[in-house]
Amino acid sequence: MNFLKEHKLMQMNNIELQYGEEASLHLTASPKGGGLQWELTDHSKKAFLQNEYFAAKVFHQSDDVLVIICRFVEAGGRFIQVHFGILPNVPVKICLPLKALNGEKLFLERYPNVMQTVLRGDAHIDLESIQTVYIETPSSQNGRSFSLSNMELLTHEPNFKKEKIVYVDEMGQNNFREWPEKIRDTEQLTASINRALDNDGKRPFKMEGGESYAATGFFRTQYDGEKWWLVNPDGEAFFSIGVNCVRANSPMKIKGMENLLPPLPEKDEKFAPAFEGDFFDFHLANLIRAFGDNWYDNWMKLTNNRLKEWQMNTIGNWSDENFIQYSDLPYVFQMNDFPETEQKIYRDFPDVFDPAYERNAREFAKQLESIREDRRVVGYFMRNEPHWAFVEDVNLVEVMLYQKETTCSKKAFADYLEEKYAEIDRLNQAWQTRLASFADLLVPEKLRLSHSLAQENDFSEFQKILVRKYIEIPLTQCRKVDQNHLNMGIRYAWISSKDLLEGCELFDVFSINCYQDMPDKDQIEYISKKLNMPVIIGEFHFGGADAGLPAYGIKAARNQSDRGKAYRYYVEQGAAIPGLVGVHYFQYNDQPVLGRFDGENYQIGLIDVAQQPYQDFIAEMCKAHDNVSEIRAGRRKPFDQMPVLIPKTGF
């Protein structure tokens, strides 16, 4: 079904439109963004049920990545929108499996030449209820101009015709951009990296003139009556400044992107480490070009020197294990394989009443045995950014009730209600339903939810029970294995519901990833006081629009100098918050031009693909690190000149 031919355009929002041949459109959006709106006909509503894929061809020649948002809205207002990242100068066929609108996956599989594809919006929508379709692009730095054609519903995946365009050079740099640090050849690469290797790193940053407390031999927390601190094993006050993903590698997914690649080196013994399955790693290949067989040892020396010179005091999440042992810097430990169950409640939320959840939690906790006696461990995180928590005010109980599967948690909810109401008539009166028995709660076809006040309260109370068990069961097992180190939580992406704090008072430190202009002081202080513990920020970043990548992350500035000032503003403002004890930057390396495993390709690194530091950014970063001690001690005011940021060029 050709969508553009079958539908009359209902509305244009902040966008200029020109019609082309064969039902194609050319759209121009202002920096505010804009989009198009179509109301579905009876015929097209049936087509959504009869087909399996929604596809369209997109092309643009902007300076940076174009984000296309396909938004599907039910008559009642529920919606899911799918964000597609589109490289400049590459004709792309976007494709959405319609089954993805059930909301079970946050990140979708990549199709050829497409960058990250991610879902936003409500927990799910029903195909038969879709009323309106929007095609939109968000706000941007300079506005957008792009073509849209072959928009159609299909019973099968479309054909993906890939035009040969050598998008990156032999060192993995963007062929469509120029910037000062761009390396021209292998000789320049080798000379530059070897010069950097000769620099000796300074001593690691620590609190100068800070308080001293009782030494316990391991990191712990301390409240001094005014502010929270981390305390290192020797009893010294410590504010954790870290960087994530300190690794030699940053692999690019090349499957589906072959037409955009230059000739790759031979997969011989020399470059074999740069090849792995569907990936090729230009970062690693460049180290091999510069250092030969000693690339790994030299990378560790170079990187350790740089982190110390730049006054980092913590090695962050997902960093190279051998590098952690090579360095003497403190580090955090990210646990892997958070316990799962065969059946899920929603996305990655497990069936927490299933006995297998506790069994798997016991196995999960065993990985702490390897760090139990390590004094350098600041603390450990049980997981990162659970996908179920990406939906604002997610209603896990309602989603669970409409699942066909009869999970242990669903049975537990029926038992919970039977204990509370005793008789089905009392539940029906409170819920305004007509259930024949409590067992009917296990059969989705027999449910007609009224969303009465009593029903909403029951959902809310049981959701708190679910979230508490989600936290408490693995945490208890972790405590049994390791009593020495701080449990630093699960690094929520943001607080999408107040229920996310259930059970979190059992942590030692609450962690959150905070991609904002500055740490959210009000939220941090609220959480710290509510849970009676400090907070640590597990991720934040700022990208720059003047370097080699076409996407600049969730927060970004026009150039590296402003990017550095944004970093300084963030870190120094954070150091002044009494309840905050650390900030960890994401990440050490730039991401690959053609995307990592999921298509993310942000200019957010401290260094680029050729191991070149962003010097203007680093200069401002070091100023922040130099000032943290005085700010934390109350002897210096934090930097207060936030530069102007540009609109998000992330997905």
Describe the structure.
With 651 residues, the chain is of the alpha+beta class. The protein has 3 domains: 3-154, Sandwich (Jelly Rolls); 200-253 and 292-317 and 507-646, TIM Barrel (Alpha-Beta Barrel), CATH 3.20.20.80; 344-486, no CATH class. The protein is built from 14 helices and 30 strands. Strands 1-4-10-6-7-9 form a 6-stranded antiparallel sheet, with no helix packed on it. It has a 5-stranded antiparallel sheet with strand order 2-3-11-5-8, with no helix packed on it. The chain has a 5-stranded parallel sheet with strand order 19-15-29-26-25. Helix 3 (186-197) crosses helix 4 (282-291). The two termini are 28 Å apart. The model has no long low-confidence stretch (mean pLDDT 95).
Short précis:
This protein has 651 residues and is of the alpha+beta class.
Helical/strand content category: alpha+beta
Residue stretches low in confidence (pLDDT < 50, at least 5 long) are none
Percent of residues in beta strands?
15-25%
The dominant shape is globular
For the termini, the CA-CA separation is: 28 Å
Question: What name does CATH use for the topology of the largest domain?
Answer: TIM Barrel
CATH class of the largest domain: Alpha Beta
Mean pLDDT: 95
Strand order of the largest sheet: 1-4-10-6-7-9
Largest sheet: 6 strands, antiparallel
CATH homologous group name of the largest domain: Glycosidases
Helical element count? Answer: 14
CATH architecture of the largest domain: Alpha-Beta Barrel
Oligomer: single chain
Pfam family, one: Glyco_hydro_42
Domain Glycoside hydrolase family 42 N-terminal: 340-625
Keywords: Glycosidase, Hydrolase
GO cellular component, one term: beta-galactosidase complex
